[in-house]
Amino acid sequence: MKSGNGPLAGVKVLEFAGMGPGPFAAMMLSDMGADVLRIERKGAADPQPHNLSSRGRRIIEMDLKDSAAVEECLRLAQSADILIEGYRPGVMERRGLGPDAVLSRNPKIVYGRMTGWGQEGPLAQRAGHDINYLSLTGALHAIGTEAEPVPPLNLAADYGGGAMMLVAGVLAALLHARQTGRGQVVDAAMTDGAAYLMTAFYGMFAGGEWEDRRQANWLDGGAHYYGVYRCADGKWISVGSIEPQFYALLMEKTGAGEFLLHSQNDRGAWPGMRAKLETIFAAKTSEEWCEILGDTDVCFAPVLPLSEAPHHPHNVARQTFVELGGIVQPAPAPRFSHTPSAIRWAPAPVERDAERVMAEWIAPPS
Fold first, then answer.
1. Which of 35, 158, 192, 220 is catalytic?
2. Which residues contact 353 (CB under 8 A, 6 or more apart)?
3. Of 58, 20, 72, 17, which is closest to residue 40 (Cα–Cα)?
4. Which residues pair with 61 in a beta bridge?
């Protein structure tokens, strides 16, 4: 197992296995060079090669109902810089692995907690998923067609409001711990994070610039200049010609300027202009539109399926996708000029010799 060379090289992360955003956050930390050790439940199956968020760390199994195993986990925490867990509030405390127990052993540790609803509040103990967390924040109400909300995969709450916020939080707390010698708890709730991502929209709503309904605004598919269109071959393209100069170019390149009887942001004209653009874009294939618009500042891109995105020339040039273990997958992001991130290894089996792995992980670097 190769050591990390990224910006987090030398940082040790103790991960208690969970689902969704917790593992994704641990994957990000590993890609950035951290040495991540995952604690799985006793008898856990090996991760499958396509379980990409399991990549880049060693995995051991523990029976956390066994007091001896709990003591081993506390010993591991003494050598860790960051701990990540994603159980319902109170579970780690009942196991003897809550923040008080861990921080008493290691006052400098950053204790990252990943939940949907947060550590307290009326819903804290309720089950939920991304779609529910988005629902409570106003985000889901704002996404979709005029007829109904559309879940944006589980990107916005699980991975955006959850994993990304957890990573930002534990790294900020790690910086503070190294400056002061004092660790702390990071409460990363997906509802909080998803709401935080909506900051700009709440600001526009407060300023009277955003209507509280779908497909009525400039970024939600309401505006004809910001949306997706079907082409003659059944494929889709996207345009985002927000700025006036880009909008003028869109009108020029599509020939829609002759239909421009209203200003760009005359909301009453949007449905008619969208209908005109739908007719125009449907007259050519997506490849033809790539030829016409691809090298311009219209703010244009083809809507690529997962099977095609890794092969687009821009993604190939930037090596946005890589292949490891026969699996094509996104490369780590963001990019660092001096300490580049890297996928350290593909998802690896649970290592059954836990004592050896723990001894190696605890040992100071040579």
1. 158
2. none
3. 17
4. 40
Per residue in 32-47, pLDDT tens? 999 999 999 998 999 9
Catalytic residue flag (residue 129): yes
pTM check: above 0.85: yes
C-alpha distance from residue 181 to each of 98, 110, 167 (Å): 20, 11, 20
d(CA 301, CA 286): 10
**The CATH number of the domain covering residues in 12-197+332-362:** 3.40.50.10540
To the query of whether residue 212 is one of the catalytic residues in this protein, the response is: no
What three-state secondary structure class fits 109? coil
Residue the block writes with tokens 């996928």:
343
pLDDT in tens, 89-114: 999 999 999 999 999 999 999 999 99
Per-domain boundaries in the chain: 12-197+332-362, 226-308
Q: Give the CATH fold of the 226-308 domain.
A: formyl-coa transferase, domain 3 (3.30.1540)
Q: Is 237 left (phi over 0), alpha (psi -120 to 50) or beta?
A: beta
